[in-house]
Amino acid sequence: MPSRDQILSVLLEAIKSASTDQAELVYDGEDFALTHIAESQIQQNLIRDDCSIVARVINGKKIGVASTNKLNIDAVKQAISDAVDISTFQEPDEKFVSLPESEKAPDVDAYFESTANYSPSDRANAVWQMNKVAGAQGFHTAGAFKTVTNRVAVINSLGTEQYFAGTKAELTLTVSGDNGLSGYAYGYSRDASKLRPGGIAETATRKAAAGKDPITLPSGQYTVLLEPAAVGQLLLFLGFMGFGSGTFVQHRSFMSGKIGEMIAGDKFSVEDDASNPQMLGMPFDYEGVPRKTVELVTNGIAKGVVSNSYDANLMGTTSTGHAHIATKSFTPYPKNMVMAGGNSTVDEIIKSVKRGIYITHFWYVNYLNPMQTMVTGTTRDGTFLIENGKVGGAIVNMRMRQSILEAFSNILMLSKERVLYPQYSVVMLVPYALIDKFNLVEEQA
């Protein structure tokens, strides 16, 4: 993967060829390595090292976008020329104001050699550790271990110049056995040496072993204790459905017309904060705008949404630094959500429950009604009955049909402990959550 100086020198030289009102170049490079596991065996080892250089040019109100994956001056100049040609065929966008002119974003030390140099042998050793733990109890492993090194650079003709390098490691594991027994656990860190494959396997194996002879519960409203992965899955969909400026300005967001109003319970607070020391998030967006910390919901009150420069101009505000690369057309959404925790330990929360359901995570979560934040999905890989303050036997998986905001209006307790949970391109810092009146439906055989 090329160095910072190599990337910036090519971009800065190439952009001089842009004979347009404004121009922008974005380098997005990724060194991606994946080990895929099934039936306790490595099924796939994949390494991909690629990049995209996206040119965006502005001629009056006409916008053209083109790209290349070749980091050399001639190729990038050609992408700029192609973008200019494309712009001549576009209708003027009268709502467009300007590319942003941004100050330098703070440096973030998110690059770890331990991750960048993590080898296929290292991942194979992690698989061996997990197989040893799960195999001792007769279980099989399945999952994925990936490591990623990213380099992003943004420059434009208005003087913006940003650069970021970061790494991340993500391990997801499902342990399974006969009669449908299964357990799930995961690990995430920018520093791969911080992951503990054996410990992750122990957690997943313990859940699988406890899943024998599950009982069936009827459909109804239950008190549920959600692990951070389950909380994160709900929070992710909330972010997609309403925390971005695109749907907000189009009045297709549950936040539209609700700023300053109570939309959830007072125990629910979330902000987008790339600067959180546990996040080490990219400090600028794909327009080069430094990311701001954005209050989304505070004590249940709707506070704001994340935006790019285009939507911010429509709203009469300034960009929060959440633009996607110009080849992506979907709305901005928060990338580093931090949910407030509570004052209790997980054990204290469990001891407070007379009767409830412990949920590890959900499977195949999908929209039902975005404006009402309604989603569906099934519990999976570790669903247990809580009785008289203790986690007991397993229950047959159930389907949720639930408004996320309604669930977050019914929070009873949150854990002090918070865990990083990655999903798609979003990372969330989330606690365990005890929620009342959660809608679960008995799955039909």
Distance between the amino and carboxyl termini? 51 Å
N-to-C series of helices and strands:
HEEEHHHEEEHEHHEEEHEHEEEEHEE
Q: Which outline best applies?
A: globular
* Total domains: 2
**Average pLDDT score:** 97
Number of strands: 17
What is the percentage of strand-forming residues? Answer: 35-45%
Strand count, sense and barrel status of the largest sheet are: 6 strands, antiparallel
Helical amount: 10-25%
Calculate Rg over CA atoms: 24 Å
Instruction: Outline the low-pLDDT stretches.
Output: none
Q: What's the total helix number? A: 10
Strand order of the largest sheet: 3-2-1-4-5-6
**Which structural class matches the secondary elements?**
alpha+beta
Can you describe this structure?
The protein is α+β, with helices and mostly antiparallel strands and 445 residues long. The chain has two domains: 4-204, PmbA/TldD superfamily (PmbA/TldD fold), CATH 3.30.2290; 210-445, no CATH class. The chain has ten helices and 17 strands. A six-stranded antiparallel beta sheet has the order 3-2-1-4-5-6. It has a five-stranded mixed β-barrel with strand order 7-12-13-15-17. A hairpin with a 2-residue loop joins β1 and β2. The longest helix is centred in the first third of the chain and has 16 residues, at 120-135. The radius of gyration is 24 Å and the shape is globular. The protein starts with a helix and ends with a strand. The mean pLDDT is 97.
Short description:
This protein is an alpha+beta fold and 445 residues long. It is built from 10 helices and 17 strands.
